[in-house]
Amino acid sequence: MAVAKTRTIDIRDFFDNGIIREKSFREKIDAIDWKEFQDNKVVITGCDHVPIPTWAYMMLAAHLSPYAKRIFWGEPCSAVPIFVRGE
Question: What pTM does this model have?
Answer without folding.
Answer: 0.85
